[in-house]
Amino acid sequence: MEMRSHKHRKKMSRRKKVMWIVSSIALALLLIGGGYFLHIYMNVQETVNEMHKPLDRDTSLEQKEQLENVLKNKEAINFLLLGVDERTNDDGRSDTMIFASLNPDTESVLMFSIPRDTYVTIPGREGKDKINHAYAFGGVDLSVATVENYLDVPIHFYSKVNMEGFSDGVEAVGGVTVQNDFYFEYDGYQFNEGEIELNGDQALSYSRMRYDDPRGDFGRTERQRKVIQAALDKMVSFNSVGKITNVLDVVGDNVQTNLDMSQMRNLLSNYAGARKSIESLEFNGNGQRINNIWYLVVPDEELNRIQGEIESHSQTGTETENASGDQNSE
Predict the structure, then answer these.
(1) What does residue 96 show for φ and ψ, rounded to 5 degrees?
(2) CA torsion, ordered 281, 173, 95, 178, to nearest 10 deg
(3) 177 vs 288: CA distance, rounded Å
(4) What is the model's pLDDT at position 12?
(5) Measuring CA to CA, which residue among 321, 168, 172 is closest to residue 243?
(6) Domain boundaries, the chain
(7) Which residues lie on this side of the membrane: Extracellular (predicted)?
(8) If you average pLDDT over residues 180-191, what whole number do you get?
């Protein structure tokens, strides 16, 4: 009887020992994991704070309330992405302007590039000018106001990327792989047709070429989107704190946005599904020389078409069904 009891106690002791070891390992993993994610979170928070540059109008109580209602009601939101070449003693130009509308209800994105030479009215300026000059005249605030005025839609958020830091971002993720549509040479580099690998400097040159592209500005912005998407895909696969920290350092130095941390969390929670369907549009315009300067003149009917596409995309599924019902009843 005593021997059985002794064996039983011995087994219990072993079980406790095993449970203690397993629990200790689990706790260690939890602490390591918690430390990892805490470190990432702190780095993300610091980067977001560094990136956060509100527009002048964002301080308005009315603007804040309107934006809160849009996010709360999960309405479609509009973004403006500006790719800017800013160099020493130069105000820079917004060489890349990409409009994107995210609709969480239909889980879709409508996206198009606004050609840099588009002939538009810039608020507060006499006459018309190239749309990318708005940045030189009044920075991000005037760029946003100009696009809002031109497309007749609100821009809820913007992101400005310094293209001079573009190569640093690609280097931080270890280069990117993209599918190139045709062979070309630029900045001393050769870009073959098909799948190609790019380091930071190559990616910047690949994204800048436009004069030898049969699609001009449209082709250039398409290549920029490819590089950005490839870099984002690589970031998702990272499991190294060091790599993520390097990327965050580059982002903090080269990106500005009026998104704050809570708004970013909201977008991740309620708008992430919009990536399931991405529709791209293109502007159709005519190249014209006005006062010996080349502009892209977009006819009114083409601009109306683009505005109609934005309005249609921004509707909820219910609104779309109601609109279809009204048309059928007629």
Answers:
(1) -125, 125
(2) -50
(3) 37
(4) 54
(5) 172
(6) 52-173+238-329
(7) 39-330
(8) 94
Of 100, 151, 147, 148, nearest to 313 (Cα)?
A: 100
What pLDDT score was predicted for residue 34?
Answer: 44
Q: Residue 30, SS3? A: helix
Give, as one character, the DSSP assignment of residue 292.
Answer: T
Local structure of 151: helix, strand or coil: helix
Q: Which residues pair with 97 in a beta bridge?
A: 82
Distance CA 10, CA 136 (A): 80
Residues in a beta bridge with 189: 186
Rounded CA-CA distance 234/170 in Å is 10
Query: pLDDT tens digits for 21-69?
Result: 555 555 454 444 444 445 455 667 777 788 889 999 998 999 889 999 9
Distance from CA of residue 243 to its chain's centroid? 20
Identify any residues that bridge with 84 across adjacent strands, giving them in sequence order: 94, 162
Beta strands in the chain (DSSP E): 77-85, 93-103, 108-113, 119-121, 128-130, 157-162, 176-180, 184-186, 189-191, 194-198, 255-257, 278-281, 286-290, 293-297
Which of 133, 152, 145, 129 has the alpha carbon at shortest distance from 291?
Answer: 129
Q: 3-state DSSP helix/strand/coil percent for the chain, to nearest 5?
A: 55, 20, 25
Distance, in Å, from the CA atom of 271 to the CA atom of 265, rounded to the nearest integer, reads 10
Residue with tokens 């950005």: 228
pLDDT of residue 328: 52
Which CATH topology does 52-173+238-329 take? Nucleotidyltransferase; domain 5 (3.30.420)
Q: Which of 33-47, 91-105, 118-132, 262-276 has the highest mean pLDDT?
A: 118-132
**Token pair for 82:** 């500006």
Could you report the per-residue pLDDT of 11-30, keeping only the tens digit for each?
555 555 555 555 555 545 44
Residue 52's SS3 state is strand
What CA–CA distance (Å, rounded) separates 148 from 153?
Answer: 5
Residue of 155, 181, 131 lying closest to 258 (CA atoms): 155
d(CA 87, CA 175): 24
What is the reported pTM? Answer: 0.76
